[in-house]
Amino acid sequence: ASVMAELLQPDSRMCNYFFLYDGSKVRGEADPTRDGICYFYPEETPLDKQELLCGQLAGVGRCVSELSSSPTRTLRLRRNKFAIRMKDDFFWALGCSVDVPTVSVSEFLDQLIDLFCFYNGPVRRSYQLNSQETLAARWARYLSHLQSGSSELSHIFSCLRTIDSTNVDPLLLLKAALILQACQRCPLVLAGCILFRGRVVSTQMSPGLTMKVMVHESETYTKAQRPNGTSASSSFSGTVSSTTVFLTTPELQDLQSAPVDKGFRCCPTTPQRDGPSKKTRLSRTLSDTPSTESQVSNPSSSQPPQKASLSPRLSDLDVFSPAPTHSAANSLNPSPQSLRPSLSNGEHSVEDEMEESRSRKSTGGRSQIHSEGDGSVFEEDSHLNGGEGEGAFGGVFDFQAVESGNEQPHDDKVVEEDSSVSCGSVSGHSAGKSDPPPLLPPPHRLSDASEENALIPMTLYMHRVKGLVLALLVEPHFMSDATSMEEVYHSSLASLNGLEAHLRTISPGAPGGPGPYTFAHFDCVQSTLTTNLSGRSGGAWDQPFVRATSLLHSHFCNTETLQEAIIRSASTAVYGTRSVAQETYFQQNGGSLRNSGIPNHQDSAFSLPSKARHRLLKHGVNLL
Amino acid sequence: MTTKTSLLKVILLGDGGVGKSSIMNRYVTNKFDAHLFHTIGVEFLNKDLEVDGHQVTLQIWDTAGQERFRSLRTPFYRGSDCCLLTFSVDDNQSFLNLGNWKKEFIYYADVKEPEKFPFVVLGNKVDVTERQVSTEEAQQWCKENGDYPYYETSAKDAINVAVAFEEAVRRVLAVDERTDHLIPTDTVKLHRKPRSTATCCS
Questions:
Q1: Going from the N-terminus, what domains does chain B have, and what CATH number goes with each?
Q2: Is A418 within the bounds of a domain?
Q3: Does A270 contact B68 at a Cβ distance shorter than 8 Å?
Q4: Sheet holding A468-474, edge to edge
Q5: Whether residue A190 sits in one domain with residue A147
Q6: Number of H helices, E strands in chain A
Q7: A105 and A33 together in one domain
Q8: Which of A68, A150, A466, A530 is buried deepest, with most CB atoms within 10 A?
Q9: Domain range for A594
Q10: What value of ipTM does the predicted structure carry?
Q11: Bias category Polar residues: which stretches (chain A) (predicted)?
């Protein structure tokens, strides 16, 4: 009964161990294991311990994989749970505490590998082109980034860090979305996102891609040493930089299949006098996408139709609603009740193009915003190089549980498959497992040789205005196309200046103590978390909720048919509910839990679902 | 007199659609986009220029004209050195609203001595043939409301835009000079003539 009481103290750092092992370096009996260790974290781990762990885990991983004819996904070793990935001769393992949900550990590792490939290209090629030390620094940086400034909840859900929208006028989110759309008038711009102090304000990219882009943003913000290929453009007074990145084929196809009607894009050579381009509006996607065909023809869209109604907080539907002012008035209370009715009364109608944009898929991307209660992103993770774990490596390896990824198509394309899942929407949840990458042509899926080619070089362009960053994925020749660059730069500069001024002056809400209830709402589609839990506090009263949420999330991931659950201790109870698109967790604080030992109709835990439904409406969470 | 560069904040106010953003873009980037979206909240661009030997960086704040954006724009009125009240000569209502814009500015910018604050009035879109506001009407309003300089501009055809901003700078510098002299010498030039009170429609 008292599951929560048994839970251990949390560690602010999620990852205990991480390594990349190259089996091709250790072929013969005489080859020392250390030759195969490309990177090991924590770096100060004694080499013999590194060898022990790498050798044993790699061996067991291969063994299990061969016995089960499917890739090994997870290995458990004493108090550590290792997510495993194998590709070609490479072997990755990421070890976390056993308390962390398996799905979270797996996602963490996928993110880490994806990040590396995004900035460095294929792993084999990277190790041919760069020294081991250079790449070790990068692994360390990505690892640090993924763990920095996040709350425990955000680790559990592997969610995007977004700005706290509770105090942000929704019109400013619209402004951000319009800036991105204006940039897309240049045909060399694929998609973009706007970040403020390391948090997402608006994005047109998938959560997975947005997450990757944010790493470079935080690097340029902290002025860390730049990776190769980064260059600052002098002509734009040092505020513009770019770096080469690598997209997977599904990622690229997703971007290219976004309903950007190229026919309506302005030519980069904007004429002084508008001649034939008379009908072209600035917000191409708002006004110039007349039909809805393009939406339908986007099978890779990761947004299930119910998204809008399930995510009444600022989904892109809301952002592009024809009546932004009413939301301004209700920005602190964006409940569906207050939002919806004014959609139809038209008295605020901003403009016809906004009316048209109610077909939300025509917005050319996702705009997302959610609140998340944790603190600053820019804190150094002082634990990063902290001491080693719990001294679990006494030499006795105790494989208590071996989970094989039977749900994966069993070939050796683990990495690619995984990346497509995590870059898509549902990030590996059971609900989304059935989503194939639909646009991937069959040859690419089947031929192993094409995989290395499946990483396509693109350029990440960044324009910084103080704490605000405009990040755009652009065609590689964008940076050498002065006309296009100037066009994008000048068309967005004033708006970015203004947006930065607006966001800077927003005062953060008062950090509340424990309120009458605690909740966390995870939008699986946008990979965003809304919670009234202040992430920094780490307060004792938060812990039961966080641990219960972790457990419930695990259960939801493992049991596809599970929709609702209550987890309880002697003193409190946490209610969890989920659908394809969302997971919601709710805890009523204070008051005594009437708990007679045996469930009865007086048990206050049974009133949690209805309490959650009513309380969360004002947070824009609709459980009805 | 001085060689140091000073930052001057000028703010464009006026009804939605009169061309405030276009005026700013014409002046700073010398570009014109007929299909700009509504400005949401505020935006700004900087431009360095020299006026009468003074190096200044002009920070031009462009604002949203629509009423529903009021709460977003008004916090940024404070600290303005000059206010450009803008209307469109083909929209009489935008002209009639000038007084409201002036009031709103004085209130939110917390101007201590409104009668001394430098306003400049711009009648934009003179390229349009169907005018609803005559030059005389506009001049009359400027005369009666504080003897403000009046410029008829076209952001589209690049008419008078730069001249208007330069006049704004002169107005600010003139006010500064007055205040500078006030403190050490105790003398006040009450009737310091602005350099060009006349309209500049060409």
A1: 6-181 (3.40.50.300)
A2: no
A3: no
A4: A199-203, A189-196, A468-474, A455-465, A240-248, A231-232
A5: no
A6: 21, 17
A7: yes
A8: A530
A9: 517-619
A10: 0.87
A11: 327-347
Q: Which residues pair with B55 in a beta bridge?
A: B50
Domain count, chain A: 3
Q: Which of A330, A317, A402, A332 is nearest to A362 (CA)?
A: A317
Rounded to a whole number of angstroms, the CA Rg of chain A reads: 24
Polymer length of chain B: 202
pLDDT of the residue at A613: 87
The residue from A123, A157, A191 where one domain ends is: A157
Task: Tell me the β-bridge partners of A399.
Answer: A77
CB A529 within 8 A of CB A152: no
Is A505 in the B-facing interface, judged by CB distances under 8 Å? yes
The DSSP code for A162 is B
Record the tokens describing residue A458, joined without a space: 């693109």
What is the pTM assigned to this prediction? 0.71
Region for B14 from its dihedrals, namely left if φ exceeds 0, alpha if ψ lies in -120 to 50, beta otherwise? left
Q: Quick one: A216 and A112 in the same domain?
A: no
A169 chain-B contacts, CB cut-off 8 A? 41, 71-72
Among A44-48, A306-310, B50-54, B64-68, whose mean pLDDT is lowest?
A: A306-310
In this structure, the answer to whether residues A46 and A137 fall within a common structural domain is yes
Matching residue, tokens 């969610």: A159
Q: Are residues A102 and A218 in the same domain?
A: no
Tokens of A332: 């602190």
Tokens representing residue A527 in the block: 């990979």
Q: How far apart (Å, rounded) are the C-alpha atoms in residues A213 and A558?
A: 30
Which residues of B have a CB under 8 Å from any CB of A?
Answer: 21, 24-25, 28-29, 31-45, 62, 68-69, 71-72, 75-76
- CATH number for the domain including A593? 3.30.450
When computed from its CA atoms, the radius of gyration of chain B, rounded to whole angstroms, is 16
User: Cα B147–B151–B155 angle (5° rounding)?
Assistant: 150
Could you tell me if residue A294 is inside a domain? no
Contact A172 B34 (CB under 8 A): no
Q: A-chain residues within 8 Å CB-CB of B71?
A: 169, 328
A365: tokens are 């991307």
Q: Are residues A501 and A556 in the same domain?
A: no
Residues of B in Cβ contact (< 8 Å) with A239: none
pLDDT at A29: 80
